Amino acid sequence: MKQRNVDVAVIGGGTAGLGAYRAAKAYTDSVVMIEGGPYGTTCARVGCMPSKLLIAAAESVHQIEKAPGFGIHPQGEILINGREVMDRVKRERDRFVGFVLEGVDEIAAEDKIQGYAKFIDDHTLQVDDHTTIQAKRIVIATGSRPAYPGVWNELGDRLIVNDDLFEWDDLPQSVAVFGPGVIGLELGQSLHRLGVDVKMFGLGGQVGPLTDPQVMAYARDTFASEFYLDADVKVERMERKGDVVEIDFINHDGVLETFTAEYVLAATGRRPNVDNIGLEHTSLALDARGVPTADQYTLQTSVPHIFIAGDASNQIPLLHEAADQARIAGDNAGRFPDIRAGLRRSAISAVFSDPQIAMVGETYQQISQRLGTCGCFAIGEVSFENQGRSRVMLRNKGMLHVYAEQGTGRFLGAEMMGPNAEHLAHLLAWAHQNQMTISQMLDMPFYHPVIEEGVRTALRDVNAKLNLGPEMIKHCLDCGPGC
């Protein structure tokens, strides 16, 4: 057994692991990064980037299908070549992975240890059966993996997760998607638009990450108008029959229906990869899910010299959050014991469905729990159905809710579904991070005609409800026509 003594050991070589390694190296050369699987990050290999490639292909089909609404009529049948679609997805995916691998290759060989690490005690890690590492500080950056009911394993290779989908050589005829969350909505809608027969099922009525009941209901109705969606389905039977899966479920009419799918896509969430790293041999305090508890601003766990970052931290499983956490955790592991709070930015998230879904700052649920229903906050809203620029482009579906604090007028957060929501969310996130009031946001410039004018309408609506500004004018001159 090989023995290593280091200042900092980072468990994991994904987005958080790479970031933590580089941050710690700024303080000491004695840093190792341990990785058991392939390098390349979840985002590049099986997450953000390949999913957006599939979405882009689906959007190109959808634009052709929408053309008659503008009086433009493409001739002939739209031919979707599934092999060509998946070939481009995989080629471009591999290109993105290649950029990550170039960065990994720049890391000194002696700093990279291949294998799966487990804790022996608070300072000792064993990597497979070949190396024992004595580390003064440790960063847990082990990522996450898809989670689904164990009984589904009986479906064999007919059960897939998003990782598997991006290895397809061709598009299938039919897919049952379980979980109308971020992954399920993005992949399910894309497959539907690419000609795959898709049925999407959920439990409890949840759609996407939304918490505002009105916005969620709008999203549910919008998706259900395009493809089959039951966010609270009752499944009577799911059984593999040869190379297909038969699913008996109660449909919207209350009738038992059977759907035959080539694949079942499990998009029912992810779980942190901390259950097989020997935490039972440490003195770490764990939360209800078995994840080490950590300070939000320092990423320091209950054991002072152990830090956690990225999806493993069970905070916000998004790349930009993983990168921020990595810098904080790696920085503090490197400078230990001089622990410092790092910058935690305003929350921002997006679902690249069509229309897109986005959330900024505090959610409706968080605000309601914090301020109650005593009228301590107000909601401003706008519909994109008649919003000028959205209607011009035939992208006039969606609604935006903005939340503001009574008394101070401070902007608290927003939830939305609508065109270009990814861009609207950035504007609102910048305002939130700067702790702007609604009146300050309304002092910012708005061009005409742009979708962003919808944001101004929602801000004016909430401003009137805060009793801090004039009443809403149905047709204001500075908005121009159609707003």
TrEMBL record:
SUPFAM superfamilies assigned to the protein according to its UniProt record, in alphabetical order: FAD/NAD(P)-binding domain, FAD/NAD-linked reductases, dimerisation (C-terminal) domain
UniProt EC number: 1.8.1.4
Any one Gene Ontology molecular-function term assigned to this protein's record: dihydrolipoyl dehydrogenase (NADH) activity
Residue intervals of the FAD/NAD(P)-binding domain: 7-326
Protein keywords: FAD, Flavoprotein, Oxidoreductase
The keyword Oxidoreductase is annotated on this UniProt entry: yes
InterPro entries xref list: FAD/NAD-bd_sf (IPR036188), FAD/NAD-binding_dom (IPR023753), FAD/NAD-linked_Rdtase_dimer_sf (IPR016156), Mn/Fe_SOD_N_sf (IPR036324), Pyr_nuc-diS_OxRdtase (IPR001100), Pyr_nucl-diS_OxRdtase_dimer (IPR004099)
Top-level taxon of origin: Bacteria
Pyridine nucleotide-disulphide oxidoreductase dimerisation domain: residues covered: 349-458
Family: Belongs to the class-I pyridine nucleotide-disulfide oxidoreductase family.
PANTHER family: MERCURIC REDUCTASE, PYRIDINE NUCLEOTIDE-DISULFIDE OXIDOREDUCTASE RCLA-RELATED
Name assigned to this protein: Dihydrolipoyl dehydrogenase
Lineage: Bacteria, Pseudomonadati, Pseudomonadota, Gammaproteobacteria, Vibrionales
